[in-house]
Recover the amino acids of this structure.
C-alpha cells in the first residue's frame, strides 16, 4: 500500500460546521479513520462497490440509536428480503413508483423497463424529506446519472439545517464534488480461490477521496463478513 | 502553482507565528509538518513572478531562513524540488516529468517491501521508473505501483488544504459621538456582535460567555482610542456579561440580550467606545426548534412530509415491503398499500451478502466457450468471468406458470459479484442481482 507524504489532520470532522456527533459506521476501523463515523448533519458520498453494505450498516446503527431513517431507492434495486434491517421502522421511498407489474409486462414483451425520470423524482423526495427535519439518517440511492452540482449543494445545506446524516449512493464514480463532506470509493477484493469455488464474502477496500477539514488519500480494507456478524448481533 | 517551503528547524518558530507570517505572502497557506505550501494564484502582480515570491517568503521568515524553496504545479513535485535542489527552483507546467526524471528513485515514498522489489531491478532514477509501461507496472506491483508510477511522472491530484486565520475573540469600536441613549448605541453594538460571532462561526465555534465593556465619555482621553481589555474596578467603564447555557452564534439574539442587560443596568453616562469580547467559546451545535436545545424529531412532521411526498409522487412511491416465500430473488417481496404489522411484514434473512436485485431481471448476452460461461455482455459492456460457481437448479410454479432456472454466482474481472440465471424454458440469460 502506498504511503503518501503526511498531511495535517486539522481535527477532521470536529472542525466541520455542523458540530454534531457522528453516526457510527459499524466498523471500528472505519470509525477511527473518519473521526467517529459518518459526519453528523453532512452529506457523505459513497460510490463504487460496497456502497449498499456501508449504507445498510449505517441504517442499522441509526435504528439502534432510535433515529428515524428513510431510504430513497432511485434505481429500484433495494431488496428488503436480504437487507437485514428493521423494515417496520424504515421509510422506503420508491421514486420510480410501483411499476413492478408494468415492468414485468414490458420485459415479457421484450421491451426495457421504463421509469419516470427516477433521478429527478429521487432528488425531489430527498429535498422534501430533508425539509421536514424529521429524519436522523437519509440514504439517497441514485441511478447511474449525474445530477447538477447545485442540487448537491442544496441537499447538503438542508442536511445541515435538519441535522440529518445524508448518505448519497452514486455510481461508479463520485459526482457530488465539493458539496460532500466525505467521499469514499469502494472496491471489492476477492481472496484467491479456485475458479469454480463459491465466491466468499469479499473484503471491501475503501479509498477516502475527500474529507472536509482533513486531507484525503489513504486506503482502508474492511472485512465485510465481520460487519455482517456485528450487525446481525445488533452491536 | 504551489510554492513549497522547507521550514526552518522545528522549534525556531511556533506554528501560529509561522502561519501569521506566511499569511502576509499568500491568503492560502497550508502547514504540513516541516513543510508549508502556498498558493500563488493571482499573486503574480503583487510579487512579480517566482523570484519575487521567493523573496517575499524569505522576508516573511526573517531572520530565519527557509531550508528549501520551490514552485511547481502540484504538491509532490514542489516538495521534491524543494528537498533535492539546493537553490530555489521553478518547475513549469508540463515539465514535471522531465524535472523529476533526473532525481533518484529513493525520492519516492516507498514502503520497504516494494522498495526491496524495485531497487534490485537496476532502476536508479525516477525517469527509469516512469519510462516503464503502466500496464506492466500494474500487473507486477498492483495499485501501489501505479500510484508510485504517477508520482514518478509528476502527477499528484492532491490539492491545498488552506489553514484558517485564527478568529479574533475581541473587537472594539469608538463611536463617532458619545451616545447618551440606547438607540444610537444599538447599531454599533449589533455590528460588533455580528462580526465577532461570524468570525467564530467560521471556526465552528459559538459564544459561551459574552462580555460588553463600554468606555464612558468623561473617561475617554483625547488622543487615545484604545479600549481596555478588562473593565476591572475602574469607574470610567461599565461592563455587562452574558453566560449562555450552550454555544450560540446568532448575532441578533445576542445583541438583544445585551441590550436587555444595558436597560436593566444603565451606565449612567454617555458611552464613547465599545468592546465586545468572548472569553469563553464552545463548539457550535445547530439549534432549530428551541432557543437553546437540540432538534427534536417530530412524528407529526414526519407523517406530514410522507403525506406530501405521496401526493407529489403518488401513493406507490411509499411502498410498504411485505416479504414473501419464493425461490426467485425478484419475487421475495411485494409492495403493500396497507400498513403491515411488524410481525406480518416478515423478518429479513440475516448474514447474507447485501444484494441489489434487478426487478425485473435484466437480459444479458452470454459468452460461452465449450458450453462454459466465460463472459457476459451487458449493454455495451463486456464482463469477463474470473470465477464461476454453479449452476444451482431452481424450479417452481408447476401448478400455474412453471418456471425453471439455473443460477450461477459469478465474479467478473472488475471484482463485481453477480448472480446470473439461465432461464432454461425461454433460453434467456438474466442478470438477477449484484452483490454490493
Amino acid at each position: 500500500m502506498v504511503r503518501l507524504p503526511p498531511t495535517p489532520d486539522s481535527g477532521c470532522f470536529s472542525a466541520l460546521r455542523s458540530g454534531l456527533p457522528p453516526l457510527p459506521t459499524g466498523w471500528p476501523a472505519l470509525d477511527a479513520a473518519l473521526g467517529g463515523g459518518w459526519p453528523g448533519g453532512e452529506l457523505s458520498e459513497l460510490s463504487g462497490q460496497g456502497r449498499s453494505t456501508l449504507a445498510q450498516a449505517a441504517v442499522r446503527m441509526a435504528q439502534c440509536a432510535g433515529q428515524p431513517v428513510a431510504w430513497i431507492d432511485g434505481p429500484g434495486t433495494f431488496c428488503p428480503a436480504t437487507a437485514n434491517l428493521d423494515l417496520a421502522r424504515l421509510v422506503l421511498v420508491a421514486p420510480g413508483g410501483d411499476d413492478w407489474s408494468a415492468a414485468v409486462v414490458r420485459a415479457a414483451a421484450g421491451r426495457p423497463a421504463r421509469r419516470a425520470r427516477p433521478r429527478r423524482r429521487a432528488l425531489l423526495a430527498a429535498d422534501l424529506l430533508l425539509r421536514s427535519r424529521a429524519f436522523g439518517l437519509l440514504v439517497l440511492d441514485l441511478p447511474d446519472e449525474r445530477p447538477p452540482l447545485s442540487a448537491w449543494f442544496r441537499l447538503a445545506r438542508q442536511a445541515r439545517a435538519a441535522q440529518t446524516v445524508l448518505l448519497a449512493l452514486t455510481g461508479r464514480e463520485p459526482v457530488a464534488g465539493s458539496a460532500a463532506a466525505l467521499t469514499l470509493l469502494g472496491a471489492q477484493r476477492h481472496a484467491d480461490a479456485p475458479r469454480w469455488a463459491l465466491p466468499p464474502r469479499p473484503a471491501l477496500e475503501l479509498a477516502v477521496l475527500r474529507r472536509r477539514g482533513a486531507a484525503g488519500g489513504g486506503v482502508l480494507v474492511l472485512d465485510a463478513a465481520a460487519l455482517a456478524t456485528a450487525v446481525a448481533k445488533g452491536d | 502553482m504551489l510554492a513549497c517551503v522547507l521550514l526552518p528547524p522545528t522549534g525556531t518558530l511556533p506554528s501560529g507565528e509561522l502561519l501569521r507570517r506566511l499569511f502576509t505572502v499568500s491568503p492560502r497557506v497550508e502547514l504540513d509538518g516541516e513543510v508549508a505550501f502556498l498558493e500563488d494564484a493571482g499573486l503574480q502582480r503583487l510579487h512579480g513572478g517566482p523570484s519575487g515570491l521567493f523573496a517575499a517568503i524569505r522576508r516573511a521568515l526573517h531572520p530565519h531562513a527557509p531550508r528549501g524553496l520551490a514552485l511547481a504545479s502540484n504538491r509532490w513535485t514542489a516538495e521534491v524540488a524543494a528537498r533535492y535542489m539546493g537553490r530555489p527552483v521553478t518547475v513549469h507546467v508540463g515539465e514535471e516529468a522531465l524535472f523529476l526524471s533526473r532525481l533518484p528513485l529513493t525520492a519516492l515514498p516507498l514502503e520497504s517491501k516494494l522498495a526491496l522489489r524495485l531497487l534490485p531491478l537496476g532502476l536508479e532514477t525516477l525517469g527509469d521508473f516512469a519510462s516503464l509501461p503502466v500496464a506492466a507496472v500494474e500487473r507486477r506491483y498492483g495499485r501501489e505501483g501505479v500510484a508510485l508510477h504517477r508520482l514518478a511522472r509528476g502527477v499528484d491530484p492532491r490539492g491545498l488544504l488552506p489553514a484558517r486565520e485564527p478568529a479574533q475573540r475581541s473587537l472594539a469600536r469608538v463611536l463617532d459621538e458619545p451616545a447618551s441613549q440606547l438607540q444610537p448605541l444599538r447599531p454599533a453594538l449589533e455590528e460588533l456582535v455580528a462580526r465577532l460571532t461570524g468570525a467564530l462561526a467560521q471556526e465552528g465555534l459559538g459564544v459561551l460567555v459574552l462580555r460588553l465593556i463600554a468606555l464612558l465619555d468623561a473617561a475617554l482621553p483625547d488622543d487615545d482610542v484604545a479600549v481596555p481589555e478588562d473593565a476591572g474596578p475602574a469607574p470610567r467603564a461599565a461592563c455587562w456579561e452574558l453566560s449562555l447555557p450552550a454555544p450560540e452564534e446568532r448575532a441578533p439574539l445576542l445583541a438583544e440580550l445585551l441590550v436587555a442587560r444595558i436597560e436593566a443596568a444603565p451606565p449612567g453616562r454617555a458611552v464613547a467606545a465599545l468592546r465586545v469580547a468572548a472569553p469563553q467559546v464552545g463548539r457550535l451545535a445547530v439549534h432549530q426548534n428551541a432557543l437553546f436545545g437540540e432538534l427534536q424529531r417530530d412524528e407529526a412532521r414526519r407523517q406530514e412530509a410522507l403525506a406530501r411526498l405521496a401526493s407529489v409522487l403518488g401513493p406507490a412511491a411509499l411502498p410498504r415491503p411485505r416479504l414473501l416465500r419464493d425461490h426467485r430473488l425478484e419475487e421475495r417481496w411485494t409492495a403493500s398499500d396497507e400498513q403491515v404489522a411488524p410481525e406480518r411484514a416478515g423478518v429479513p434473512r440475516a448474514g447474507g451478502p447485501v444484494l441489489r436485485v434487478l426487478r425485473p431481471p435484466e437480459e444479458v448476452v452470454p459468452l460461452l466457450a465449450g458450453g462454459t460461461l466465460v463472459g457476459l455482455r451487458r449493454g455495451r459492456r463486456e464482463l469477463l468471468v474470473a470465477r464461476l460457481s454453479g449452476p444451482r437448479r431452481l424450479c417452481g410454479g408447476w401448478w400455474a406458470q412453471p418456471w425453471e432456472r439455473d443460477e450461477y454466482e459469478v465474479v467478473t474481472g472488475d471484482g463485481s459479484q453477480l448472480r446470473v440465471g439461465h432461464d432454461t424454458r425461454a433460453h434467456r440469460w438474466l442478470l438477477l442481482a449484484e452483490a454490493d
Observations:
- Residues 1-16, 226-235 of chain A have pLDDT under 50 and may be disordered.
- The two ends of chain A are 30 Å apart (CA to CA).
- The CA atoms of residues 188 and 204 of chain A lie 5 Å apart.
- Chain A touches chain B through 87 residues (CB under 8 Å).
